[in-house]
């Protein structure tokens, strides 16, 4: 009886310490990795936004999302035949490879190992990464032993940055990297851009040999 009680206390202690460890490192609550909708998903290629609006009217359905010229929508009765009639060639996808989550991943080991499963890095925080990934990719990370957690308030938050570029053409390049540009100022040092960018965007800016400096935290950038 005494051994059983000691074993029970040990199990409770392990669970408590595990929860305490997650809380201390800010991983957050458990993430729901079940599909938003269990129905199969169809993927078709599209050209522009006008085509999406036309499909909404003709199919009477709301797309799941559009990414990289591909439109994803849940398979419903008769929709495959309608797409065939309209000249599309739908490809069936599994929901796990379509639905995505933005989550915290407890920092462990090398970042390069974590992103090998295909997730997209957004931000690096002291004790965790913030990533976007499909349910299949996030499940793979969980199987590898990574701790996943929900986002905190105001996450993910862009960093306020100061970017120095040489020409106006480079300003356009910065905009194409989806940096939120607050202001642009021409100086003797070059063109200075003040804006908001996530860590992944900062990596891209530096890859273009732009000078990037993180500015002091303000009310717009809330630390988790």
Uncertain segments are 1-24, 219-224
Count of spatially separate domains? 3
Number of strands: 12
Classify the fold: give the CATH topology of the largest domain: Alpha-Beta Plaits
The global form is flat
Strand content: 25-35%
The CATH class of the largest domain is identified as: Alpha Beta
CATH level-two architecture of the largest domain: 2-Layer Sandwich
Biggest sheet architecture: 4 strands, antiparallel
Termini gap: 45 Å
Overall helicity? 25-40%
Structural class: alpha+beta
C-alpha Rg, in Å? 23 Å
Oligomer: single chain
What would the average pLDDT be, to the nearest integer? 86
How would you sum up this structure, described in words?
There is one protein chain. By secondary structure, the chain is α+β, with helices and mostly antiparallel strands. The protein has three domains: 41-97, Ribosomal Protein L9, domain 1 (3-Layer(aba) Sandwich); 99-156, Alpha-Beta Plaits (2-Layer Sandwich); 159-214, Alpha-Beta Plaits (2-Layer Sandwich). Helix content is 32%, strand content 29%. It has a four-stranded antiparallel sheet with strand order 2-3-1-4, with no helix packed on it.
